[in-house]
Amino acid sequence: MGKETYVCPYCDKAFTDSHEARKKHLAGRAHKANVKRWYDSVDAGAVRTKGGAWTPAPAVATPTLPPSLQPAPPTAFLISLAEWG
């Protein structure tokens, strides 16, 4: 059996899978540049909002939810306007 190889997902570079080899690769200038390039490309597509801004999640079509997760009908929790006294 040969030694296992590790392929870096950022660099597409294969090398022997050992602690020393990984540590050397992860500390390398080319690897760090590739990681930065990848995260910059991800950030470019992201929408940034001001800190603390809340954006609602998109609504999910309820027919696709299982019955136990479907919301109650709008009239389920109506408050009775009966006066007590």
From TrEMBL:
Name the UniProt record assigns to this protein: Matrin-type domain-containing protein
Cited InterPro entries: Matrin/U1-C_Znf_C2H2, Matrin/U1-like-C_Znf_C2H2, U1-CZ_Znf_C2H2, Znf_C2H2_sf
Compartments it resides in: Nucleus
UniProt key word Nucleotide-binding: no
Main location (coarse class): nucleus
Pfam families in UniProt: zf-U1
Source organism superkingdom: Eukaryota
Matrin-type domain sequence ranges: 6-37
GO molecular function: nucleic acid binding; zinc ion binding
Source organism per UniProt: Achlya hypogyna
Annotated Gene Ontology cellular component terms: U12-type spliceosomal complex
Tagged with keyword Zinc: yes
Record keywords: Metal-binding, Nucleus, Zinc, Zinc-finger
